[in-house]
Amino acid sequence: MSRQNNNEVYDSDKTASPILTEFTNLMRYRDLVRQMTVRAITIRYKRSVLGIAWTMLNPLLTMLVMTVVFSSIFRFEIPYYSVYVLAGLIFWNFFSFVTRQGMADMLASGDLLRRIYIPRTIFVITGALTGVVNLTISLIPMALIMLITHSPVTWAVLVLPLSILIVFVFALGVALLLASSAMFFSDISPIYDVLLVILMYATPIMYPITIIPEAWRWLVNINPLTHLLILFRQPIFEGTLPSWGEFGIAAGIALAVLMIGWVVFTNKADEYAYRA
What we know:
Oligomer: single chain
Radius of gyration: 21 Å
Number of strands: 2
Distance between the termini: 32 Å
Shape: globular
Mean pLDDT: 85
């Protein structure tokens, strides 16, 4: 149906790009994003016996186990190994939480999506923001371990917010891709759980890259999580700033993944209510 008015043609069959429409609507619903994030955080800690303490104890206990198991192997190569491992675990817990939570929240959103309209990306973004809160809390035991082990602290830690932002952008992009796929293929979630285990050992979280033979080191270097981990861990563990090259590579990867995830997710957004 078309209508001519002042030399302009309006076509009701034409709609704006779903990519831009989703972003515009997300801005309009930003208060809802905040409310849903607060609710998710409240529910998460309210249901836990230990509450916020568990968010700090989880990576801390895992770090203790890893330190006992691997310290005898890496003690001559990595000083302050506990700090090295804990920084890697905090990074990994954030990435795995954001990507898995995005799928879980989307799969649980069907009833709400069929009742009212809200931007579909809200469910994934809420999970990602909750992950940022968890990560921030996890930095408390990180500071305590650095204090106990007398690990040097430099001004380089001030760049951490930027590093976290880049990791957040990458994790959000992956979460959007996974959440969209999970709405059409229910096997994505269990397959991804297995893939996470492989990725964890393919990322230098518990070991230094230098122990890998030169002939195979390229496999670790093509892993985008390796570059993001360097961005997060280097200011904490080494007390130095990552190079502009590392920042550029990590930021470029993160933005590319977010753009791909956003395009894929928003182009299928109208179908999710019938798939959940």
